[in-house]
Amino acid sequence: MSYRGTIVPLVTPLDAHGEVSESDVDSLIGSLEGKVDGLMPALSTGEGWKLSDRQWVDVVTYTVKHSRGLPVLAGIQLPTTAQVVARAKVAVDAGVDAVVVTTPYGADVTQDQIVEHFRTIREAVGVGIFLYNEEAVSGNKIELDTLLRICALPGIVGIKESSGSADYTNAMTRANTGIPVFEGWENLLLQVTGIAGFIGPLLNLEPGLCNEMLTDPRPELQDRINAACEAYGLFGDEWYRPLKEELMRRGVISTAQVVPEKVAA
């Protein structure tokens, strides 16, 4: 499958007891029906790195169940290759179309180890892999040459480019790898060229505005997007919290409860 357009990194709606609310997952997806091109549960906006095993399974399973025919790309944010492979197999059994994977965690991870990480996952898992290029969760960076090496692997179906550097993104799109590149930062949409689409938290609230920006990028739309992100608190460290609060205010989800941070053993 060739991915393009807007793919929404869904928040993870919780009920009052901290369990994933199936009815709210359904409601959230229903509010986006006909406005986005794909669903991405359990990534950073979905607090993927904090979810318990049960919460992760529930939000992915409910998203597949209520997808309304949209492709589901399941986020996996775990420290090691073995953990990612195990969870990816669960995602495949749940019926996802692809898995979204970052690098192994740790500043000491080498570029060769990053390539081997993606090669191992691909050999073990029978669905496409969407590469999540970020640093905040994994604690390391993918160099451009490394990213190009990963793109040469079979089964890489897309890149969520969240480096925060328009120069990096533009260098990636100029490389013409054939792998669709999606911008991951709302405030950079006007500065990047050649992207296949956008994946960002604002899509939970304003998919129409984001689609318009992709179709006809211009400064006044970028200003509106930046203003919306400021108004909704999406540039803060816990952007998913005010995002949930606004979705609750609109009646889309029932609570604004967030997942507690995991306590180290």
Give an account of the 3D structure.
The protein has 265 residues and is α/β, with parallel strands linked by helices. It has a single domain (5-249), classed as Aldolase class I (TIM Barrel), CATH 3.20.20. It is 38% helix and 12% strand. The protein has helices spanning 22-32, 53-65, 81-94, 111-124, 144-151, 166-174, 207-215, 219-231, 240-249, and strands at residues 5-9, 38-40, 73-76, 98-101, 128-133, 156-161, 181-183, 197-198. The protein has an eight-stranded parallel β-sheet with strand order 2-1-8-7-6-5-4-3, with helices on one face. The longest helix is centred in the first third of the chain and has 14 residues, at 81-94. The radius of gyration is 17 Å and the shape is globular. The N and C termini lie far apart (41 Å). The model has no long low-confidence stretch (mean pLDDT 96). Pyruvate binds at residues 45, 199.
